[in-house]
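Example record used in the benchmark description.
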Amino acid sequence: MKIVFFTSIVALAFASCSTPKTYFTSSVRNTIETNNIPVTKLQFYVDRDVQLRREVASGSAQVSAGVVKFENGKYVNIITLKKNTPGVCTRTYEDKIDVSFEMGDGRYLTFGKLKRDSRAPYTLYADSWGRDPRSMGEIRYDGKIYYILPSGSEARLMIKKDALNTLKIDKREMKGRRVE
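Model output (C-alpha cells):
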C-alpha cells in the first residue's frame, strides 16, 4: 500500500513539473509574428514518433545516421524521431516551416497547414503520398529519399505554452486633444 501511495506522489510531482505544450497552428503563428517574435526563436517538439526508412544497396551499407538493419535480404536504413524531441525552425514559408531535429544540411522535416482552419496544427509534409491512407510518404532527408512510415504520417508540431505567455503587449488608449 505504501509503495502505491509513494509511486502516486512521485508521478504527481513529475507531472506538475512538466511544462504543458500546445499545437503550433496558423493562429498561434500569427499571434507570435504579430508580436515581432521570429518563428526561428521558438522551440518546437513533435507529438509522436516518426520513422524514416529507406533501402540501402548492400555495397553502400555504411550509413551516417540512423540504424541499418538487414531485412529479407536487403539493408534498410531507419532514422527514428522520438516524440517530444526538440527541434528548431530553419526556414519559413507562407503556410509551412522547415524544422531541424539534428545538425546538418538537408536534415529537416517540413511541417505546414494542411487545412484551411487556422486552428489546425502544422502537420508533417511529404513530397508525395500514396493513394492508400496507410501508405508511406516520400521525402528527401539528408540528400536521400526516405519513406515516412504510416504511424508517423500525421505527426504535428507543438510548442510550450509559456512561449505564448511571454508575449508582451504594450497597449494604451489615446486621450484625444482639444482645441485651445
